[in-house]
Amino acid sequence: MAKVLVGLSGGVDSSVAAALLVEQGHEVTGGYMKNWINAEGIPGDCPWEQDIEDARAVAKTLGIEFRVIDLIDAYRDRIVDYLVEGYRNGITPNPDVWCNREMKFGVFLDYALSQGFESVATGHYARRRTLGDGSAAILRGADPNKDQSYFLSLMTQAQAARALFPAGEMLKPQVREVADRFNLPTAAKKDSQGICFLGQVKMSDFLGHYIPENPGEIVDTIGKVLGRHRGLHLYTLGQRKGHGVASPREGMAYVVVGKDVSANRLIVGWDSPESAGLYASRCVVGNLSTLNEPFDRPRRCEAQPRYRAKAEPVDVTPRDDGKVEVVFLKPQRALSPGQICAFYDGGRLMGGGVFESVE
């Protein structure tokens, strides 16, 4: 039996993860990661205080030790600054994926190891297995509708070897049933939505606190001016609503197809495969992280370009600079620099990286 620190978020999934580990006989401690408390007064609800109390109540119900671990400074340095700088530079970063590598299985894991724990457990819907060579592999969660392995795609082998995902072996309704069986106070709590640390704070309000508006022209794909935008950081590729340009054609919408950062122009086009910039097949992925095998030779696998997207067949070719060239066999809509590309071999997560250029 292992000594395990469970990241109790105040939600039902991590609560059940802790309960199952206790039932299995492990020595379990619950730890709430205090990452961000909206001290700047940005409009919106960040329910961290309620989450702490819910996590504490779960620990009390299970009869385990509970700790609040202050990681605010590390979170600001590793996640918030990365997020703000990414948007400021015209890309669309994914803080949830970075949070898992840098915080939950980075700073939090380092803390756990320093305190004598052997593993860190979370409520992620993913499964961990040990391969024949002794290395740790991450598989998609048992529930295909809740699978969160995409968010673990930048984890290292050393991190995966210390990770436990008890809830990932079950379907979501089964998780709720387990929560009821243990009389957990979070059994009926709704799942959290949105960015990992913002709660109900809108991303636009969050970014507006750090990045001043920088209005510019909205143009179509041939350069015709159609309107004005409030700042390129407030728009994402593929966005259909909220850009402020009404379509003159019945049944056809304008979508964001590009950003000209140097000219501070937002580019829109029709929401169709023929619209220049909206669909792409070829891209370069950098900042690679692999779990069991390096991308050291050309190969075919599957790539998932965003959380809710389907994994599609790709040809991956390594480059001399440590990055890979990825060619989707089927053109993909709104591939965005800064977003995460996760690679799979069937149901096994191979690793992931960051879209750097798309064409």
Distance between the termini: 50 Å
Q: Could you say which structural class the secondary elements and strand pairing correspond to?
A: alpha/beta
- Give Rg in angstroms: 22 Å
Question: Which word captures the global form?
Answer: globular
Strand order of the largest sheet: 12-15-14-13-16-17
Helix content: 10-25%
Low-confidence stretches: none
For the secondary structure, the number of strands is 17
The proportion of strand residues reads: 25-35%
The helix/strand series, from N terminus to C terminus, equals EHEHEHHEEEHEHHEEEEEEEEEE
Most strands sheet: 6 strands, antiparallel, barrel
Structural key phrases:
alpha/beta, five-stranded parallel β-sheet, 7 helices, six-stranded antiparallel β-barrel, single chain, 17 strands, 359 residues
What would you note in describing this structure?
The protein is of the alpha/beta class. Strands 12-15-14-13-16-17 form a six-stranded antiparallel barrel. It has a five-stranded parallel sheet with strand order 3-2-1-4-7, sandwiched between helices. A hairpin with a 4-residue loop joins strand 10 and strand 11. The longest helix is centred in the first third of the chain and has 20 residues. The radius of gyration is 22 Å and the shape is globular.
